[in-house]
Every structure is written in C-alpha cells, then in structure tokens.
Design a protein that fits this description.
The chain is mainly alpha-helical. Helix content is 55%, strand content 5%.
Length: 185
C-alpha cells in the first residue's frame, strides 16, 4: 500500500471529501498549504500527522495561526490534537516544539557523523574515476578538430560533464581549436 493510498483510506474513514498531497516549496519561503484554498470558516483541517503538514516549527505555527485567524479548526490524527480548544492549542505548540527539537538533534547528529568521517579521511560521494593519465589523454585529444567532446568522453569512459568538471580551461581549448579550424578554411 502506498502512502497516497494510506491517506485516501484514512480520509475515507473520516468522511473527508478531498485528501490532498502537499507540494511544499524547496525554498524557505512560507506559502499557504494548497488545501487552504478549499477551506472556509467553520471547517476543520484534518492531517494524518504534524510532519506531513509543515516542515518546521515556524511553518506549523504560521499555518495553524492563519487557520485560526480564518476561524478554521486544525486536527492532527497521529498526535490526537485538536486546536479548536485552548488545551489542544497548548498541546499543539508543545508537540511542534518537540518535533523541531528532535529534527535538530537528527541534523546535529548527522553533522557530527560527517565531521568524524571527514576527520578519518572519508569525504563521501562517489569515488572519482579521473586519474592524471586520463586527464593527460583528454588534453591530448581535445585540440583534435575531428573529435567531438562526446566522442572523447566516450573513448575515455567518462561523461562530458566529468571533462568539464576536471578541465577548467576546456572551453578555451575548444575555442582555440575552432579558431584554428576557421583560419585554415
């Protein structure tokens, strides 16, 4: 069962007409959740869990405050909280703060692990396929006007992007080759 099916089933048991999957912006800019457009005063927004509704404590508090300003209730099924009551609002703020705290602990642990790995000499990512011999071969082949970048990359077993990443003056080399070719003609 996919997550989408799970949300639809949960919505069906609660007689919710339209379960929406959020599409959050990648930037940090706040934008109202898409489902807010379908809500009016007296409605209650029901979400499966707080983490599915907002990415940060600021997001959650801002969106729930907007709902409250518009006289729209908010209920989270997993945390069993309902912001239509004062006690529910208090619990919401406590849960949101704890969720943010846990997220920050995870981020801090990740950063510590990366720093420890870096101190041991592990840099992460894929190992490089580029060797000094490969770079020399690429530099020797680049001035040849008969060879395209794609054919050079294929011959050396790397991508064109790899050539661009590891030969900073590649465009100048190719431009000089093009100029020489035009002068011959």
């Amino acid at each position: 069962m996919t997550r989408k099916d799970h949300r639809a089933d949960k919505a069906a048991t609660l007689a919710i007409n339209r379960p929406l999957s959020p599409r959050r912006p990648v930037s940090g800019a706040f934008r109202p959740h898409p489902c807010h457009a379908f809500l009016s005063a007296g409605d209650t927004l029901v979400v499966p869990e707080l983490a599915r509704y907002g990415r940060s404590l600021y997001d959650l508090i801002t969106m729930v405050a907007e709902l409250r300003r518009r006289e729209i209730g908010f209920t989270s099924l997993h945390e069993k909280l309902d912001t239509t009551t004062p006690g529910g609002r208090l619990v919401f703020h406590v849960f949101a703060a704890l969720a943010e705290f846990i997220r920050e602990l995870i981020v801090a642990g990740t950063h510590e692990g990366l720093a420890a790995a870096h101190a041991r000499g592990h840099t992460g990512g894929c190992p490089t396929v580029v060797t000094p011999e490969l770079l020399k071969a690429a530099r020797d082949l680049l001035p040849d006007p008969e060879r395209s970048l794609t054919s050079i990359a294929k011959l050396l077993g790397v991508s064109v992007g790899t050539l661009y990443n590891h030969i900073p003056d590649l465009q100048e080399i190719r431009a000089g080759q093009q100029l020489a070719l035009m002068q011959r003609n």
